[in-house]
């Protein structure tokens, strides 16, 4: 039961960004209310990184983010870096390790991060209310007034940390965008990102024997490319390299996949030009059996290397290094790790995250049109944007 309903700051959304902002702002002797409609705290942290939360990436830099304004994230990211976050983990003895590509994961379960943020909120006397639904919200006489199922609360400052639309089954909602619109801010069209892509029935039928097969790859669209594993699924394509490129993909566009990033298949064939080995047996040195079978079937070539024409070699090379596939959609918000788009950064001050047109109204975390690559970048944005807001309030 909360008796006093007057606060300096109300934060909507007790997720990664909301909890981070709450404890930093409260440490400056501000009275902070952190509220969330969900019954469970920071569910996305809990399920992230396969249960071990990939909480940041040591290679974080603004280039790893998509936004209509490429430079918007620079200020916040440079003032609160991955090392600031690991400093807190070190202080509280929370173990972590680097997996690949600069990705830092907890040694134990993700819950360790939730417990730490919760502890920091408690140490700084943040008032936290879960299962709190906002019925209406307004700004009256310079103060934000929130009517909720637990009564009316008001504050001088309102921080919107509601996240994006991905995984609605655990509490994601478009409420942050609704608040932005209510106060005259624009929204950059939202869509699922870091998401598996689907294929039409015909293409799917042709690749269904490969379902479950993961392979090293470079996926690319135009000049953007990612080197990680790709995976055929029973609905289409997944794996880190596909999730990464999905954030750049648009309907109607095909994706190029280099199936053999470390070798040049043409020189490999030319080096063995006099061999009587069948192409299938030769390719099996580079690919799994099922993938080899499929490549040969799709190429329609299975001669001995000595019998390959120059045209054959060009066809094989193009297929292996420039394999083109046309997705027909994505698996949507149910499977997307993040939402691309969101509150238009043109309306926000990049140093403080405050709305330029409404004093005291802040937007942080995923609700903002800043979308990170896969690999800890999205949590880093949550921490950095939360820090930017909390230190400027
Ligand atoms: P977040 O979504 O964390 O929090 C928003 C909060 O607002 C929620 O608690 C929600 O209940 C609440 N809320 C929503 N609507 C509300 C309303 N109407 N009223 C009140 N409260 C409301 N990133 C990364 O960097 N590394 C990783 O390993 C992963 N892994 C990962 C796995 C999976 C399965 C998903 C879905 C996502 C990831 N991510 C990730 C992305 C990462 O989880 C995400 O970018 C951050 O959680 C965003 O933090 P926010 O605090 O902005 O939103």
From TrEMBL:
SUPFAM superfamilies membership: FAD/NAD(P)-binding domain, HI0933 insert domain-like
The domain of life for this entry's organism is Bacteria
Q: Which cofactor does it need?
A: FAD
Specify the RsdA/BaiN/AoA(So)-like Rossmann fold-like domain's residue ranges. Answer: 8-391
Q: Does the keyword Transmembrane helix apply?
A: yes
The answer to whether keyword Cell wall biogenesis/degradation applies is no
- Give the RsdA/BaiN/AoA(So)-like insert domain ranges: 191-338
| Pfam annotation, one family | HI0933_like
| Transmembrane intervals | 7-26
Q: List UniProt keywords, sorted A-Z.
A: FAD, Flavoprotein, Membrane, Transmembrane, Transmembrane helix
Q: Which PANTHER family has this protein been placed in?
A: OS12G0638800 PROTEIN
The protein's matches in NCBIfam families, at most eight in alphabetical order, are given as: aminoacetone oxidase family FAD-binding enzyme
**Name recorded for this polypeptide:** Aminoacetone oxidase family FAD-binding enzyme
Taxonomic source organism: Aquella oligotrophica
